[in-house]
DNA sequence: CTGAAAGCGCTAACAG
DNA sequence: CTGTTAGCGCTTTCAG
């Protein structure tokens, strides 16, 4: 493994010159630079990350703090990670994913106080996220993916839930739907103050009001069973509902299953629109889900760019940015049946159609 | 940020004593150790990772090389990652996930030759995986998750596909099924030599032969559409099939959707068993999928333990280990209808049942 | 524009 | 059992 000494010797310059050629921290004559670069190439030189980090007090490592629950990473999160990794790599930084949630504060504290991280991206941010306090206390720059309750002095990028919900409701209303039910995350999740659940709830209420419609939200556990229960509740409360907006990738599958079991066809009897969903997941359902596609990789890129600005200049400008999801119409949404269709009639028709 | 000097001064010992107290690389009297520990606690001391890494030529970082395709991380992979992270953390190492696939060789080369990684775990290993060559050349210890074609001199942990397939087929045969079709990954994936697809194919052939049954394998694209197409093909080739074994989490959803669309009920008309599937995903389907649960977190733990052995002693013993998946019966498998039931009759009965 | 040299904070001989 | 000290490989003043 060649060192900078070796390069300097071969190029017949001093080590500092090699260093400056590498970092560009001070001007170098073209002739010298060429000599140095040639020597580096010949020796297949790669700077030692630890030595560099020790001397410069910069690890060139950015952490992506990524709580991993048993559910895994959806395609949405993956797109985010991929976008972030590409942006970091382009800037000469390494992005390391650390499965650190709000429960692993000690681990985070260790990682940060060992000066391993030049900066951190927090995913799955909670309204009161203790990781923020830990990182601030240790002086590690950070950018949130999502938002805490109080975002003063914090940079973040997040989905524009308000606009996304408005677009989804607009799509359904344009199709002619009036009785639209919103299936959200669980009551516990709402009680915990999970931002996306709260923000979409409020956005749904506002969007429906804007169209002069009655908003009904039903919480659902993040599972197929939760979706089935939610559908039962929805049908009890609004027997003649014609559309469901869902913000719960797991529940939406149970919901579709239960709809089929009850003989309600999608989208003829009930339209379903899924929020913040990746194309890959939307295509898994039968029929494929009309969905609001999350801007995963753009979100990742912007987050890294913002973070690097903070890392490079300590007091960089705070950047708070929202990106909307784009509507992608697939098979699960369509115009409602004409008024007057009863539940019983619809069921009978569905059964008939199936036998045909 | 306190340094080791500060600790030494406060404890009235030399820096080397502090260092040895920290690493345990040489015996320390209890009294001295207590003094040092007290000083550390008082100063809230954390060793500087870069300095440590430079001096010891050990980064204490293990890389988990994890190609991220657009599909994301399933619950299976997540369990693996979580198990590995826990094991690494317990050993005082940091596990960093790097979204590096076989296409990002340059990035891997940089990471490794900058001496950032003490060792690496490779996921999604291909039969001829160039990452192995890069790491070996650079002297970075590695453990495979999966297997290359030639595994001499390589440690790996992998799923015991042979035993897993045998157990799945056994389950169906015990229920009374004879006409069992195997839905695998795509033809392209097979042609590329993707290990799990090839190994399960062969295991399926062997298992069926063991029961005196005819094996039929059908490749399917990794998507819902692929599953629908595969079902159509399967029914064309074996109109009276009673069971499907699937090794394709995406296709299995399309397959179930198509089965429902054709009025074949699961499991009454057709039993479905999904291989190497996590409980979370299995529960998403309606009915919930009988599945072979992958040993994700155990796999991760064992992989890390093996890797650390290689890191600690350069010429550690090669460890090649296979873990089986465990059968978990849910709603998608059951006894077949009695012989003689025609497709038409089954469809009619299904429709009737649904209206009841 | 270039060189010399003083560290960065820690580990690991080498001495006792 | 403990202390002294020479690096690890690089960055960054300070001089020229």
UniProtKB/TrEMBL annotation, chains A, B:
Keyword annotations from UniProtKB, A to Z: DNA-binding, Transcription, Transcription regulation
Matching Pfam families: LacI (PF00356), Peripla_BP_3 (PF13377)
PROSITE patterns for the chain: HTH_LACI_1, HTH_LACI_2
Residue ranges occupied by any HTH lacI-type domain in the UniProt entry: 2-56
Domain of life: Bacteria
Keyword set includes Transcription regulation: yes
Keyword Cell membrane tagged: no
Biased composition range(s): Low complexity: 334-344
GO molecular-function term, one example from the UniProt record: DNA-binding transcription factor activity
Coiled-coil blocks: none
Segments of this protein annotated with the region Disordered: 329-356
PANTHER family in the cross-refs: LACI-RELATED TRANSCRIPTIONAL REPRESSOR, LACTOSE OPERON REPRESSOR
Record's protein name: LacI family transcriptional regulator
Originating species: Micromonospora sonchi
